[in-house]
């Protein structure tokens, strides 16, 4: 390849410092070495990078384009060097986290901020998964860490888990929904006659799961917890939601809590991770979540 990163670094230094001599000083080279590098660059590419007709050499339009695009390459090369150094010290190049849709993202953000302060350079990828999709993301390699996995983990191993906490649910409907006027706990037959709002399981490989739905009950399936709550507010159906998601809606009267004969008990949630990943980033999150579980659940 005729174009080298060294030549681009020289070109960048000349443009920033304003002269060949100043660039030579910054790069700790003699001025003749800078002149030779520029001359060889022009010769190799068969273009004129500098206009030398005046008192000072100025970049030609070709040189300006080369510098602008070359700076992208220099930044990428610098990031690659940092990445390689971090991987060599045990930090992952990228850490993927699957967060259960039962949990809001906002409480996790302070942990992300703290992680960034301690470990700049490891890219974080956050994703939301629903029901069995949390386990699915973990066992298929889409996630290194799963936060808030519920239900039994899949057979086959390859992962470890520990209890994270429990999450409580409340049966809700909109104030204008017929069930909101009921003065007695709702039985299964009454609930069965009303449409449920459910978030679709995001599993790609594992069998999809359902939760808190009655056999034969009509269902409106939506893509996210936010959409589910919006549908409840609009009076489109009934169902259970995590209480933490709707405290303000209940207090403001946008949603009504309905008493039911057989309420849904609190669900245990788990922290799970792939055992083949022993990186320092994963260990950092496991330690942080162990020390402050209430920051997430």
Give the C-alpha Rg.
Answer: 29 Å
Globally, the shape reads elongated
Neighbour order of strands in the largest sheet:
4-3-5-12-6
Helix content: 25-40%
Number of helices: 10
Structural class: alpha/beta
Concise synopsis of the structure shown:
The chain is of the alpha/beta class and 297 residues long.
Keywords:
297 residues; alpha/beta; five-stranded mixed beta sheet; three-stranded antiparallel beta sheet; 10 helices; 12 strands; 20% strand
Structural features, described:
With 297 residues, the protein is α/β, with parallel strands linked by helices. It is built from ten helices and twelve strands. It has helices at 5-17, 20-27, 31-45, 61-88, 109-118, 132-139, 188-192, 225-233, 243-252, 280-291, and strands spanning 50-51, 58-59, 94-100, 123-129, 145-150, 159-167, 169-173, 196-199, 219-222, 239-242, 256-257, 267-274. The strands form four sheets. Strands 4-3-5-12-6 form a five-stranded mixed sheet, sandwiched between helices. The protein has a three-stranded antiparallel sheet with strand order 10-7-11. Helix 1 packs across helix 2 (20-27), helix 1 (5-17) packs across helix 4 and helix 2 crosses helix 3 (31-45). The longest helix is centred in the N-terminal third of the chain and has 28 residues, at 61-88. The protein is elongated.
